[in-house]
Every structure is written in C-alpha cells, then in structure tokens.
Amino acid sequence: MNAITEALKLGTQEHGVLRFITAGSVDDGKSTLIGRLLFESKGIFADQLAAISKAKNKRTAGDTIDFSLLTDGLEAEREQGITIDVAYRYFATPVRKFIVADTPGHEQYTRNMVTGASTADVAIVLVDITRVAFEKGEEGLKATLLAQTKRHSAIAGKLGIPAILFAVNKMDLVDFDQEKFIATEKAVRELAVTVGVQEALVLPISALTGDNVVTASPKTPWYTGQPLLPILENIPSRADRAEAAHKVGFRFPVQLVARHDGHKADDFRGYMGRVEGGSVKVGDTVVVHPSGQNAVVSRIVFLNEDLPEALLGQCVTLVLDRDVDVSRGDQIVSSVDTVSHTPVRALTADICWLDNEPLNPARKYWIKQTTRQTQAKIKSVNQVLDIHTLLHGESTKTVQMNDIAQIELVLAQPIVADLYTECRATGSFILIDSATNQTVAAGMIVAKQ
Amino acid sequence: MSTQASTQLHTMSHLDWLEAEAIYIMREVAAECARPAMLFSGGKDSIVMLRLAEKAFRPGKFPFPLVHIDTEHNFPEVIEFRDWKAKQLGEELIVRSLEGSIKKGTIRLPHPDASRNAFQSVTLLETQEEFGFDALMGGARRDEEKARAKERIFSFRDGFGQWDPKSQRPELWDLYNTRVHPGEHMRVFPISNWTELDVWQYIEREKLELPNIYYAHEREIIERNGLLVPVTEMTQPKAGETVTTRTVRFRTVGDITCTCPVASTAANPIEIIAETAVTDITERGATRMDDQTSEASMERRKKEGYF
C-alpha cells in the first residue's frame, strides 16, 4: 500500500495507461474477475462494498461478496443478473493506470463488446471450464469450447487486439484438474491461431476465490506462468507496440482550422489535430490531401508554447509556411510516401454489423473515417464469417446484427486511408444510417483499390 | 536514451494520455456540433475542463459559451470563484437559475428548503432549448457513480433530454457519431476516463487555482448519519443535535443542502493526493446525501435529463 501511495502521489512515475476488456459467455465470471482485481488492488471503496453486500439482487450465498454488482450498474442489469452494456472501471498499481471495459456476454449485446474491444490493448477472454465439453479420445482428453468464446475471440482478432489472455475460470469447481486445463489450453491455442491473434496466454484461475489473480495459487503447482495482475502490469500496451503506426509515416487528420485575427499584424492560421501516425518536426515537408499540395511545417503550437516536434498521440496545432487549401477532414501527411497515402475511393473492409436492421446494399450510408465524413455505397458483400466453424461462408447479400463480414465499398469523396493492421486510426471507420443516425457498423480496412 | 527516440514509441504518462484524449474530444465537439456549450460550476472537475479547453483552443477564444445552472443553494466561495474565473479567461458565462423555473412553475419544490439538486435537470433542459444547444459538455467522470460508469463519452439525448441506457449508440475507437435530429442533443464527457486521483494530480501539475473550500478549513458541522453536515442557513441543527467546529475540506461541491465535507487537514493538492490515494470511501459516498436514497437514484435522475 505504501509503495502504491508513493508512486501515485504526484503522477511523477510515468506508468502510462493500459486499456483492457473482459469478454466471454454469460456467467463465465467476467464481472466477478473485475471485482476481484479492483478489490485486490484497493480499487473498491468501503462504501461500495457496503452497498453491494446489502443489495437486493445479490447472487452469491451467505457472506460471499457478489462483485458483479459493482459493474452491473443499471437497474435492468441487476434485475436480470446479466451485463447489458459496457461498464468502465479504473484502478491503478504502482506500475500502471488501468481502464477496464466490462463487456456483456449475451449474443444480443455483442455490439457492446465491439465498443469495448475497439479501444483495448488487451482482451481477457474468460473460459468457464465447467462448460467446456470434454471427450476422451485416443490422444487423451479433447475439449470443445462454447460458440460465444469463439465469437469473442474472433472479434478480438478482427479488431486487432494484439494480446488475448485466456483465463480458464472456475478451476475451483473442477478441483484444479490439470488434465482438463491442458485439454482446454490446447483448444484455446488452436482457436487463437484460427482467429489470427498475435499473442495468446492461457492461465488457470478462480475469480471467485482469487487463485492466480494477484498471487500464484498453491493449488496449481503445475502452472509455471505468472498470475493475471503481474501479466497486466508488464504486457506492452498498444502504444508500446505502435511500430506499425510509425511505419506508415506522419499522419495528421485535421480536426479544426484555427484562425485568429488578433491585434497583432500577423494573423494566426493553424491546423488542429492529433498525430495518428509517425511524428513531425518543424521544417518537415508535408503533403496536404486531397489537394496534394506541398508545404513546410513552420510551427508546432501547444497552448502558448512552440514545440520542436510532435509525437504519436499528441494533440497539437500545426502552422504551415504557405497558404494552402486545408479544411476539416483533410489529412496532412509525410511527403515521404513509404506506405502510399494517395487518396482512395474504393475499399475492402471487415465489418461488424451493429444494428437491428440488416445491411441494405441498396441504401447509402454515412462513413466516418478519421475526421472525414462522406457517403458510402456497399458494392458487394464478399463473405460472412461462420462463427461455429470460423470459416468464411459463401457470398451472401444479407449481413445481420452481430455478423462479421467482408464487404466492398465505394465512397462519394476520396479519403486518405491505411490498412487497419498498419495504422488503426487511419484504417478504421464507422458507418452511420442516414435516416436514424444510428452507428450501424464498425469497419476495418483490409485493402485499398 | 537512444538516438532513435523520435521514431521509437514514447510511453505517454497517464496524465498526458488523459489530457490528449480530452482535448481531442473537445475539438470534435467544436468541429461537428452547431451550437455547443460547456457546463461550468466552479467545482474542481469543471476547473480542470477549463484548463483542457485552454489547451485545446488557445490562443483563440473558446468556440462555445460556459453555462452554469445555479440552484442558488451554492457555497458563496464557489460562485465568487465561478465569476472571477470566467472573467479572467475572458469567456462568455451564461447563468440560469432554478428560481427562474420556479417562477415559471416548471419546478415545484416539495418544500422551500428541499434539495434542489435533482431539479437542475428542468432548468438545464430549458436552457438547452432557449439557446438551441445541440451539445453540452460536462465534467462528469465514470468513476463517480455506477450509472455514469455505463455512459458513453458522446451520450445521445432525445427530444425530452432522456438518457436511454438500454440502447446507447456503439462508440468505436475515437470515431464519435455526433449526428442528431433537430430537438435532440448530445451530452459529452471529455474527462470520462479520469479518476478523482487523476483530477488532483492534474490540478497539482497545472497549478490550478480552486475555491478555498476544497482545502482544510475550520467549519461548524453537525454529525448526522455518519456524514458531517455543514451548518448553513439551509441546514440547521435538529433538536438534540450538537454543533461542533471541525477541520474539514470538501471533496465535491454541489447543492449546499446535500453536500458534506470530510474531516481532513490537507491544505494543498499534494496533501490531498496523499489522502486520496489511501482513502477507502468514494468521493460521492462520503459527501452526498441524495445519491444513496436508492441503488439507482443517479440512473433515474439521468433518465430524466440530469447530467
């Protein structure tokens, strides 16, 4: 506790931020796990504990605290005993600040899991070992995972979450059976490869009893890896892994044009935005898209200061050395074209469909990519992912809520885009229904035409 | 440090990360919303919001006015600070009072000294309509309360100002869908991801001035239901209660009839940070008389248009 206090005192220790989600099927113990992490790291306060121990919809027996009541904050959630929407929770250790998105397990709320997953550095997928089907085969025990475990892993894979921690939960209910864990681990590793996850860690835990959550459990001497919390403290965040966003070079979508005709003779005209790829220095030559004009960065302004350089993730105002046509939605990029930044009007993308109304290729949708909004037409639906086999199904015209599909789009105006795997900020988009204003799809660019 | 510093990734400190996120959100509001406003009460979270707005928009003026919904049950130090701060920044401040709604008859208090906190929604929505605001930015944080923990950064409100927690718009990456039909609006929370500790660390780092009631001072209080109730015109001792003088500070500042201080000798941000890091009571849990009436009080108020 003292170490934590010391480290947090002034925010002088630069511990950064790690965002993670918990996913898994209903009742796999996601909320319980988060409650346990908060409790163990002193992220729960005494009055919150008092409130949940007297709550009327408590689901645990006797004195056992129902941690899920901490994150299931809505009346309907407590009434039904399920998580409907993402809840965000916060805790910190001396090493890091953590932002946790507790996402729902029910299939009809998958879109809320996508919401949580889009900003996550790490996904913890809970696997309830009591609901894994085991079968004795010639090569020993064979495990079959739930469809929802596959779906959530597939979403995590598509959304490019670099690391998934598969927490095989409720080990206490199978007497910490090593053979069952090994069979589950094997199935999980196969799944991770199938859905294209870069890094998969598998660990046996009990969220309820705290085994392998913060400290190593004496009941799993055969498990040689770290407990969950030390893993979370040390795993690289997405920012730490942002080599890809550097590879594409400088990317600066313009949010706002700042103009001040102050009392000084010189007007100020600057372009506000956030560095989404690479970095930029004063004196660098840049290209402004879509006009394609060149200019030199003459100043980088932040509050009343001039900076020599702006790095990935920083919000700054750029001043250019000449008058060029720049407005919101335009993009200022590096003049060195390592990864093509030529504006495009046709894309292939993976999408998660999020709306009740299925995709209608006859309609036009708004597309929002970086700070640009334009219209999009769906040229074709190439394939829809079959969640049970994890194989891409046949070409089909309908994409329903919670489907993961690959589509081709044509845009009304050109955009500067990168592949999602190369730069998340310039490779992602949302589709908006022009009639209802609902966000209907999350998109990840896989090819530019 | 290697010479590759600029091509390698720097890990941003958590405060820099939070600051950049908030600036980005404020600029999205300024760019995409036709008539935005920022709520400013003179409280610590809204003072942090002003600093972030300076970082987002200076050397220019803020592209929105500041708005305060005044219950007229406020601590005088906070109101003085509010007016001074708006003047110091040279920004427009719009104040609308609950008294106005009471005169119009749109607010009817159960009794004259009733807590006015929940009634702010009425005046807020009237003010939103009066000026045609399509986006209202506020300093609410998700760590404050369990219903807030569920809310999006861009939170859609219908023609009645209602929040529908069961059908919130999915919010992907930093791609905020700001589209609304006429009459609807957005509530926007740029410091959603900040905790009480982050706020104090930022106040310390940026050397922000706060109303002095946030720091330890002597005050007459009554102990009631485990809370320290300040003695004011509106909150008088009941029969059998005794008034004592204690050294206290406010962790949160709201309607005078429902905000309580905590016992503390912390006289500056550093001392408050040290206290906050080890406290075992939440910010609102220690200080609000109205949040605990039911498990879902905040959720119910938010559905009616509360912030």
Automatic annotation (TrEMBL), chain B:
SUPFAM superfamilies: Adenine nucleotide alpha hydrolases-like (SSF52402). Residues 36-260 form the Phosphoadenosine phosphosulphate reductase domain. Keywords: ATP-binding, Nucleotide-binding, Nucleotidyltransferase, Transferase. It comes from the Bacteria. It is an enzyme of class 2 (transferase). Pfam families: PAPS_reduct. InterPro entries: PAPS_reduct_dom, Rossmann-like_a/b/a_fold, SO4_adenylTrfase_ssu, Sulfate_adenylyltrnsfr_sub2. One of its GO terms (biological process) is sulfate assimilation. Residues 285-307 are annotated as: Disordered. Its EC number is 2.7.7.4. One of its GO terms (molecular function) is ATP binding. Belongs to the PAPS reductase family. CysD subfamily. This is Sulfate adenylyltransferase subunit 2.
